[in-house]
Design the sequence.
């Protein structure tokens, strides 16, 4: 039996281990054991963690200096166990930590640019879209983004993992915060992994005419102007649209947010710190079709970003944005197709297809 030891810190104390990014290790634990793999979670670096056959490092927990990973810290870990696997938990395909590549066996990331040559050059602001906006609109960030470009000899270490869409989102429409903590106790201490309080896929086409035309709720305040530029541009666009019934520029708690998604035809989103956002997966689960910036350059899994099949795209300059939004709102059959296809992809994550992907991926990582 081989041991995978995963360092996740505070995420281990919340439902993140069971409902969030790491939940596939719990959902498919029997299949891992059948393949002679035992998985253990640790919330701190200690001797027991370091004794694993494969050490999965959460990038959020390793110290940084001047925006780069502290390699001295990483070297100290490597002295005790060379079997290090780096999970880059940063949000964007462009925000990388390639300085660790000489010290780890594999580098796993939630999403990559399909064209890896992009990583051979500097990206202003650390992302393809920030680079585009900075150069086109002369945006100045207070702090330059500092990142190491990819050395081609390490290209084979780059492994696509999985994104936040594998999350079993907690159902705040039917359960309270008290239920949340009750679920956490059940999963953590009773070890009963039924995930009964997850958000269920929802559709309501019978009341379509009474729904809001679209919902657009997002944070627009970012310390980097280049990161927040697209969301502010989107906000300006939708503020000028008066012919549609919309929910925008308000703050809602999770319950009311999910209810608003269930009562809206379309959810409109934009990039933030990264491209893939949990909001799009929540919208799909709630039965709202999504309209989102063009994702054709991004490689990710699960992939709900197939234009005109699972979502409707708009480009970085918002060309024909309002016409596309109008079309999506008015075309019930298109919205049904997008929601059905997206929900099918999400359903597959924790069923046979997801199991097949995950087990194969784990062996790809540790091989």
Sequence:
């Amino acid at each position: 039996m081989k041991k995978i030891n995963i360092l996740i810190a505070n995420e281990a104390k919340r439902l993140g281990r069971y409902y969030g990014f790491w939940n596939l290790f719990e959902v498919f634990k029997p299949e891992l054991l059948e393949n002679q793999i035992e998985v253990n979670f640790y919330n701190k670096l200690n001797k027991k963690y370091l004794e694993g056959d494969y050490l999965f490092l959460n990038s959020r927990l390793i110290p940084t200096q001047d925006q780069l990973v502290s390699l001295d810290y990483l070297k100290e870990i490597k002295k005790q166990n060379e079997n290090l696997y780096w999970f880059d938990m940063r949000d964007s395909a462009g925000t990388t930590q390639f300085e660790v590549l000489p010290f780890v066996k594999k580098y796993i990331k939630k999403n990559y640019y399909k064209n890896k040559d992009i990583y051979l050059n500097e990206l202003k602001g650390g992302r393809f879209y920030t680079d585009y906006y900075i150069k086109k609109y002369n945006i100045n960030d207070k702090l330059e983004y500092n990142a190491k470009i990819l050395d081609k000899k390490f290209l084979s270490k780059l492994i696509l993992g999985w994104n936040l869409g594998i999350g079993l989102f907690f159902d705040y429409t039917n359960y309270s915060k008290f239920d949340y903590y009750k679920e956490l106790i059940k999963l953590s201490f009773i070890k009963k992994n039924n995930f009964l309080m997850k958000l269920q896929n929802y559709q309501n086409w019978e009341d379509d005419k009474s729904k809001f035309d679209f919902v657009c709720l997002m944070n627009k305040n970012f310390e980097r102007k280049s990161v927040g530029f697209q969301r502010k541009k989107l906000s300006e666009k939708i503020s000028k649209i008066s012919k549609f019934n919309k929910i925008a520029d308000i703050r809602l708690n999770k319950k009311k947010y999910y209810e608003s998604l269930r009562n809206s035809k379309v959810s409109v989103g934009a990039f933030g710190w990264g491209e893939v956002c949990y909001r799009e997966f929540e919208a799909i689960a709630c039965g709202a079709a999504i309209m989102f910036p063009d994702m054709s350059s991004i490689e990710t899994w699960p992939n709900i970003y197939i234009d005109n099949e699972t979502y409707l795209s708009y480009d970085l300059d918002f060309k024909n944005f309002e016409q596309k939004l109008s079309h999506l709102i008015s075309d019930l059959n298109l919205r049904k197709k997008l929601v059905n296809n997206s929900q099918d992809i999400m359903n597959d994550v924790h069923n046979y297809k997801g199991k097949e992907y995950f087990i194969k991926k784990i062996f790809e990582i540790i091989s």
The mean pLDDT is 94. DSSP finds twelve helices and 15 strands in the chain.
